[in-house]
Design a protein that fits this description.
CATH architecture of the largest domain: Alpha-Beta Complex
Strand content: 15-25%
Number of helices: 11
Distance between the termini: 34 Å
Helix content: 40-55%
Order of helices and strands: HHEEHEEEHEHEHHEHEHEHEHE
CATH superfamily of the largest domain: Quinolinate phosphoribosyl transferase, N-terminal domain
Radius of gyration: 23 Å
Largest sheet: 6 strands, parallel
């Protein structure tokens, strides 16, 4: 099991503890221990399925003897009426794990569906839609996994794996140049190779950033016309990210300016869960 897998198992254990505490009193009171049942995960809206492996892990945490058969691979397109998975075993176990599994599955599928919609909008360009750190606290690993399953890409995972110099950093550091230079010195001192991205708000700041050792220049809330000028000015000297004001109505025009990345916070901070249910029968 790798580091990410361990992190996801920890998330699952925390979610189950939050829901069950001492025990599922309704299920224990109404369902006998010997009763067996079968559950079908029914898709009730078109989209991209994501999180079936996570849902399986939820049921296995509750009861290792449960059988979980995935019918449709994570990251695949689904339509209304599809059966995404079938789970079978003790009825008590199925009912206890149901809501936690669905919470993960519906959220992840909602994120993947949104990501896929964005990816389809710009597939004729070189640009990639990327996510942000605007995730539910504690669920970042799953939110970002869902983004990838939907066909988009992950930006930095957290504050520890890449430099991202934003306006407040620049204000306190004194300038773009000083902030980037400080990151270069950090890398050298600690023998690291963290990439350096710097936020810019106008063409003048882009010009300054170009004179530094930044790997990526972010164009924050640029108008499309100004974005085109910035891309021409940068001329492939480093990667370019567009950020701010991005939605499904604007992403195509932004991608066509020639930027490399387009960050979309809405992928994870404004999630519409995909409608999926678990139908349990004896």
């Amino acid at each position: 099991m790798n580091k990410t897998d361990k992190q996801i198992i920890k998330l699952i254990k925390n979610a189950l503890q939050e829901d069950i505490r001492r025990e599922d009193i309704t299920t224990r009171a109404t369902i006998s221990k010997s009763k067996k049942a079968v559950g079908k995960f029914l898709v009730k809206a078109d989209g991209i399925i994501a999180g079936l492996e996570v849902a399986k892990a939820v049921f296995k945490q509750v009861d290792p003897k449960i059988k979980f058969e995935i019918k449709i691979k994570d990251g695949s397109k689904v339509k209304y009426g599809d059966v995404a998975a079938v789970v079978s075993g003790k009825a008590q176990s199925l009912l206890t794990a149901e809501r936690t599994a669905l919470n993960f599955l519906q959220r992840m599928s909602g994120i993947a569906t949104s990501a896929n919609t964005y990816a389809e909008k710009i597939k004729h360009t070189k640009a990639k839609v990327i996510d942000t750190r605007k995730t539910v606290p504690g669920l970042r690993a799953l939110d970002k996994l869902a983004v990838k399953l939907g066909g988009c890409a992950n930006h930095r995972i957290g504050l520890y794996d890449m430099f991202l110099i934003k306006d407040n950093h620049i204000e306190v550091a004194g300038s773009i140049t000083k902030a980037v230079d400080a990151c270069v010195k950090y890398n050298k001192k600690h023998h690291k190779k963290f990439k350096i991205e710097v936020e810019t708000k106008n063409l003048k700041e882009v010009e300054e950033a170009l004179k530094t050792k930044a790997d990526i220049i972010m164009l924050d809330n640029f108008e499309v016309s100004e974005m085109k000028k910035a891309v021409e000015l940068i001329d492939g000297k480093c990667k370019v990210e567009a950020s701010g004001g991005v939605n499904l109505d604007t992403v195509k025009a932004i991608a066509e300016t020639g930027v490399d990345y387009i960050s979309v916070g809405a992928l994870t901070h404004s999630v519409k869960a995909l409608d999926i249910s678990l139908e349990i029968t004896l």
